[in-house]
Amino acid sequence: MRDIHPTKVRLTEVTAALIDEHGSQGFTVEQLLETSNISKGSLYHHFEDFHDVIMNAQVLRFVKYVNEDIEALTGALLSVTSREDMFDRLDLISRTSHDDSRSSRRSNRIEILASSRHSDKMRQALGPAQALLTSSIADLTREMQLKGFIRDDLDPAAVAVFIQAYSLGLVVNDVSSEHIDVENWHAMISRMVRGLL
């Protein structure tokens, strides 16, 4: 958030923290102003309305998730030494992203992505971060293809979207009243990835 007015940065960061604590609809503009110690006039100088502050904070949260995922995937996959090593690391990444402790993170990402459905402004704001994540995973896929670890007849961008889809997919289980055995989920994902790639 370089080259952005410090007041706008502060409001966006405090809003993101309030969303983390209370959800995107769990606090008021008055609570934001009190927590940030910023005046209502300053808020409306930097943002169209309260919804605009929420949108900017959600984009900030999404970009944070994307950057963390890119760092984790790059760190895990760039140093693989064999096809089996790659699959073992993908299994570990899958287990980490599907851990119960990351349930709220999965839900947060789904909520943020879903908020763009009826908002061109939100879609345009999220688009570059989402494209960066997809292209980063596609680049890693190409790297693995060059090493002979992934079939070269697969489109790297399609592989990237597939990986993201199964990474977020466990949110269905998170909200179900009857949970599946996550070990069965891990075994299935591992078999699917090994069979596909």
Describe this structure in words.
The structure is a single chain. The protein is mainly alpha-helical. It has two domains: 1-47, Arc Repressor Mutant, subunit A (Orthogonal Bundle); 51-196, Tetracycline Repressor, domain 2 (Orthogonal Bundle). The chain is 75% helix and 0% strand. It has ten helices and no strands. The protein has helices at residues 6-22, 29-36, 40-46, 50-77, 83-97, 103-114, 120-146, 156-168, 171-175, 182-196. The longest helix has 28 residues, at 50-77. The two termini are 37 Å apart. The model has no long low-confidence stretch (mean pLDDT 94).
Summed over residues and divided by their number, the pLDDT gives a mean of: 94
CATH superfamily of the largest domain: Tetracycline Repressor, domain 2
- By secondary-structure content and strand pairing, the structural class works out as mainly alpha
Task: Kindly estimate the percentage of residues that lie in beta strands according to DSSP.
Answer: under 5%
Shape: elongated
* Main beta sheet strand tally, sense and closure: none
The oligomerization state is single chain
- Spatial gap, N to C terminus: 37 Å
Residue share in helix:
over 70%
Taking Cα atoms only, what radius of gyration do you get, to the nearest Å? 19 Å
CATH class of the largest domain: Mainly Alpha
User: What order do the helices and strands follow?
Assistant: HHHHHHHHHH
Domain unit count: 2
CATH T-level topology of the largest domain: Tetracycline Repressor, domain 2
